[in-house]
Design a protein that fits this description.
Elements: E1 9-14, E2 17-22, E3 28-30, H1 46-69, E4 77-86, E5 92-101, H2 107-120, H3 122-127, E6 132-138
Parallel strand pairs: 5-6
Antiparallel strand pairs: 1-2, 2-3, 4-5
Helix pairs in contact: 1-2
C-alpha cells in the first residue's frame, strides 16, 4: 500500500486519565475515564475519538460511492456509537454501531450504498473480523 498521509499522536499522563496531542497540535485534549466505567468523566475518551473518526471516515466513503452511483445524499448523516466492555478472555473489546441517515434515497438503494461504503471505508476495512459492526440505515423514502 502506498501511504498518502500519516497521522501521529502522543499520549502522556495516566493513559485514559491522561492527555493526547497530535504532532501538528490540531488535536490537544485531556482524557478522562467515563463515569460509566468508574471514572470522573468530564473530558474526552478514546471511544469518543474512535467514534468521531469512524463517523467522519464512513461519511466520506458514503459520499464517494454515492457520487459513483449518482445518488443524492443531500442531508446525509452518519453517527457512530462505540461500546467497550470485557471480552470474556481477560481483556476488553469494542463494538460499533453505524447509523446512517439518507433522507433523499429509497430504502433499497440506501442499504446498497451503505454496504458499498462499508467495503470502501478504511475504518471498516481495519475493523472487519475484529470488531462487531452493526449498520442501521434510516430513510425518509
Amino acid at each position: 500500500m502506498q501511504v498518502l498521509y500519516t497521522a501521529s499522536a502522543r499520549a502522556t499522563g495516566d493513559g485514559r486519565d491522561g492527555h493526547v496531542r497530535t504532532s501538528d497540535d490540531t488535536l490537544d485534549l485531556d482524557l478522562a475515564v467515563p463515569k460509566e466505567m468508574g471514572g470522573a468523566g468530564g473530558a474526552a475518551n478514546p471511544e469518543q475519538l474512535f467514534a468521531a473518526g469512524y463517523a467522519a471516515c464512513f461519511h466520506s466513503a458514503l459520499r464517494v460511492v454515492a457520487r459513483r452511483a449518482k445518488a443524492d445524499v443531500t442531508d446525509s448523516v452518519v453517527e457512530a456509537e462505540v461500546g467497550i466492555g470485557p471480552n470474556g478472555a481477560g481483556g476488553f473489546g469494542l463494538t460499533v454501531g453505524l447509523v446512517v441517515d439518507l433522507p433523499a434515497v429509497e430504502r433499497a438503494a440506501a442499504e446498497q450504498l451503505v454496504e458499498q461504503a462499508h467495503q470502501v471505508c478504511p475504518y471498516s476495512n481495519a475493523t472487519r473480523g475484529n470488531i462487531d459492526v452493526t449498520l442501521t440505515v434510516r430513510t425518509a423514502a
